[in-house]
Amino acid sequence: MFANEKGGTGKSTTAVHVAIALAARGARVSALDLDHRQRTLGRYLDNRQATIRRTGHALPMPRYETHDGESMDRFSELLEQLSAGADFLVIDTPGRDDPFARIAVTNADTLVTPMNDSFVDFDLIGQVDPDTYRVVRPSFYSELIWDSRKTRAKADGSTIDWIVLRNRMQHIEARNMRRVSSAIEQLSKRVGFRVIPGLSERVIYRELFPKGLTMLDSREFGGMALAHVAARQELREMMTGLALPMQEDAQISA
Question: Is 247 inside a domain boundary?
């Protein structure tokens, strides 16, 4: 599950790339978009489906649906429908507080919270002292996830692997990056999440959206520039960091 109550963190782009990467490895993947207003994940996969029909190329393609944002019965129906026969169900959530996202968090095995390397984004999960930049306390979202993990543990004895995914790292001023890194490390020990590198801010991600393509579909958009090769390496490192099942046995092809 990809969740962050702040928009603009690359959540949907990351969710799509993970879903396609898993499908490319032969996993049976479903995807559920809970953001019925923006519907970025759903539109991305609509575009991919159109590219498949237009070109006749058999691209890796998850099953997917978008929730209406209102019906609990429909939400339960989609969870059951998409989970049936799937190895992975990838859920993308709105960049705001959402009742269905809260329910989905409690049932997630892996929760990924993408964030940009800034204290604006960090404020969602923790608050810092304005002079020392040391963490003062966890923020409301960390407390929400803490409560969800306790609920999950009581329900079936399992835990939620919470991952903070750091996107767009290299374009941040060095001193600020060190301060944000230090704050994330402090908070991770306090509330128990893992930290992994995510995706950079690259034009190629926006350019591929109209066709529904990802960095794994190089044959569909021609030769790869050095920046594209670097983007694929980022994706490899991100997938390794997620440590999902199948990770040891499969590789993203070069």
Answer: no
